[in-house]
Amino acid sequence: MADQELTWSGAFARWDRRLFDAVAQRHWPGADRVLPRLGRAANHGVLWGGAAAAIAVFGSNGARKAAVRGVASLALASATINTVGKWSVRRPRPLLEGVPLTRQLATQPQTTSFPSGHSASAFAFATGVALASPGWGAVLAPVAASVAFSRVYTGVHYPSDVLVGASLGVAAGFVVRRLARDAQEARVVPGDERPAAGAPALPDGAGLTVVVNTGSGTAAAAGLDILRTRLPAAEVIECEGQELSAALAKAASRATVLGVCGGDGTVNAAATAALRAGVPLALFPGGTLNHFAMDFGLAGAEATCEAVAQGQAVRVGVGRFSPGPGGEPGYFLNNFSIGAYPELLGHRLRWAPRIGGGPAALLAAWRVLRSQRPVRLRLAGRPRSVWLLFAGNGTYHGTGPTPRRRDHLGEGLLDLRLVHGGGRPGPRLLAAAFTGPLSRSPIHVATRLRSLRIGDIPAGTPLAYDGEYAEAPTDLVLDELPDALTVYRPR
Question: Largest CB tally within 10 Å, which of 24, 162, 456, 474?
């Protein structure tokens, strides 16, 4: 029996070495420049930390949960490999005979070979993300496979090391999903906003003018059908693109109630028009991202129709950013930012039409994390260097520099979060992502305030507000307008 086991073991080792030699001897066009760099980028999980940050910033609430599961899966796989795996099977690294010098790493790993930690981390992260968000998982899968293959290509692992490591990574992803199923899912509920006395009741919709962003897709079309059934006397204006702002301003100037159907960017434009005209806002969620509607407790168009018919509304706070004298102020219902996020957003908006949203987000994150410099400006009169300045309209739940969810919108305070400059942006943003609200550290500060003066902003610095992208003025003031906007919502 022992002789048979030795025979099988020897045969497997010979097969493993033959496959290793076959990879070493074959010419792979273009791979010499890409695969060694990709493998180095995955050292210590840096590549996957950057991917998690990109998904957290650009993705939906579900995508952010997927990124967290991916990081948790990576942590589980890495802990298992580096404790049990590496020390249970003390296999030496392959001899580099036959591996071209251009492929070999400048510094060879000193740990044992079996199993591959890089492969385990890559497949753990990709699996954890894919089980919660298949779309993002499809984007990450070829990257994870390339990282795993690079370990054989550069001569630091046998093929079996990579296969076992990848299998352990996949298993870690499923374990984390099983554990996550036991956790209680967070629910969005209406908060404690002050009721708006005197909001007009429009039983059949007469006096309501709704501007619909037809570019928002099927969600907007479904909301429009409900609106026409429940409030047949409402006026409906359909448009998209550059026509939206003008249509909203014109509708607000003559309507009793301004309605809007679209995503966060469209809702921001409608709120701006409603504020300037002094009319209430009726929100019919219909976009790809509906962060404001979710935090506000609006499940869909049916709830808004009920509130408009019965005259049920509340007053919410609005964030404002005002440039120097003579400048037109802007408003935000969700958040405002300067630094890494607007840079990421700009790259993604430029590349998404050509390569798709998911790949564009990852490419944008890679570009910004490699080349972004901190923004040097003045905050409340003091010079600062920041990787990211985030201001939320109301206090957000959760950790990190760009949290996602609020309890209510009637608090009347800005949720300010700063990631200090210095070091590299990737590690600092990732470290800040795991710190809580109202916290202070050498890396991250979170606090609440009513206003903040920002000065000496470098020319050409971008800013973002509610997913929109613009160039920042040299000086501006951020402040909160408590109870500034009346918005319909059923009690």
Answer: 162
